[in-house]
């Protein structure tokens, strides 16, 4: 019996049962000095290219996919469709993690990075960051590979299939930044830095001038900070109504050869619409997307862009929760919906008077107006 047979035999069983059975079967075969009745790597013309990957790699993705029926079906699906949907991505990740756990291989940053590179190489339309993403700080990596591995290990341990004292060591190496920039802080800019941080009467044109004069110093400082919240607290000017222009200054310094997003947005927006069509599941958002796709010349480019940004909230689903207490001291937890997220970005009003009334109410409540867009319907 080989890997193909066990996967087919136990296809209706949970992942943990399949992993445990495969592991024990392999141990039993080794103890009896039995050889598999069929080669683990099929010699069919369905095989994935393997010559691109060195045998020194910790895991050869081509061999993993060729060694099981699920992997071969994933390969066939890609040959036919030239892209994956979310269900196929889930199957691909499950197949890889099944192999890793069965072979008792420890997950690490370098291993996940290697696998993600191979996925992007074998399936060119796939994005590496979907499977593995390193942050610029020492936060834990993200991506489907890490999430599936640790969720599977947690399930196996809680069910008693794996002893709790058998665990993989977390990576001890600090994470490298995705882009390694070297900044040389400007000389004699401490006075300008103090003005940026503490002069509340400085006009915005003067702030922009000072911002450009201290770009290297500030970006060097930002490299030492550990979270977005720390950055915004240390450089609070980013939160100003025109703060996006300060972001543009820093972005131009870091990526001087990149095109201005506004100049290419109309071209890129078609790709965003295709992504929205693939990802959106929210009913009301899908109706709005359908209306956008069926419209012809009766919608302006600004209107189209507004709808695109509005619909992006249906992809970046809000996960934050707010905890409040009522007059009795009882805790109430509010989980924000897609609609809440959309309403925090765009508010629709029927007249200019309603818009002005809304702004005045926000002002009286000492609530920020930005970054709201308030179109008149």
UniProtKB/TrEMBL annotation:
Protein name: Uncharacterized protein
Source organism of this protein record: Schizaphis graminum
């Amino acid at each position: 019996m080989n890997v193909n047979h066990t996967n087919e035999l136990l296809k209706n069983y949970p992942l943990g049962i399949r992993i445990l059975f495969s592991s024990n079967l392999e141990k039993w075969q080794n103890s009896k000095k039995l050889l598999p009745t069929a080669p683990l790597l099929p010699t069919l013309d369905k095989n994935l290219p393997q010559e691109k990957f060195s045998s020194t790699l910790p895991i050869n993705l081509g061999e993993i996919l060729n060694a099981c029926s699920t992997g071969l079906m994933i390969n066939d699906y890609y040959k036919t469709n030239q892209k994956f949907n979310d269900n196929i991505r889930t199957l691909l990740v499950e197949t890889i993690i099944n192999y890793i756990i069965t072979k008792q291989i420890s997950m690490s940053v370098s291993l996940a990075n290697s696998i993600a590179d191979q996925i992007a190489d074998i399936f060119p339309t796939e994005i590496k960051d979907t499977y593995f993403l390193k942050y610029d700080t020492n936060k834990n990596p993200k991506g489907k590979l890490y999430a599936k591995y640790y969720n599977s290990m947690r399930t196996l341990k809680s069910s008693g299939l794996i002893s709790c004292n058998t665990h993989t060591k977390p990576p001890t190496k600090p994470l490298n930044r995705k882009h390694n920039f070297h900044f040389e802080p400007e000389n004699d800019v401490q006075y300008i830095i103090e003005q940026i941080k503490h002069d509340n009467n400085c006009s915005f044109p003067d702030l922009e001038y000072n911002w450009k004069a201290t770009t290297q110093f500030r970006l060097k400082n930002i490299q030492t900070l550990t979270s977005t919240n720390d950055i915004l607290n240390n450089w609070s000017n980013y939160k100003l109504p025109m703060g996006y222009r300060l972001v543009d200054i820093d972005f131009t310094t870091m990526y001087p050869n990149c095109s201005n997003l506004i100049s290419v947005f109309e071209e890129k927006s078609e790709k965003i619409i295709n992504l929205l069509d693939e990802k959106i599941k929210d009913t009301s958002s899908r109706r709005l997307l359908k209306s956008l796709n069926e419209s012809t010349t009766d919608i302006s480019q600004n209107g189209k862009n507004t709808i695109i940004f509005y619909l992006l909230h249906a992809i970046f689903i809000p996960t934050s929760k707010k905890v409040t207490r009522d007059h009795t001291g009882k805790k109430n937890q509010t989980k924000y919906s897609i609609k809440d997220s959309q309403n925090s970005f765009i508010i629709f009003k029927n007249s200019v008077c309603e818009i002005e009334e809304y702004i005045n109410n926000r002002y009286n409540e000492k609530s920020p107006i930005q970054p709201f867009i308030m179109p008149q319907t």
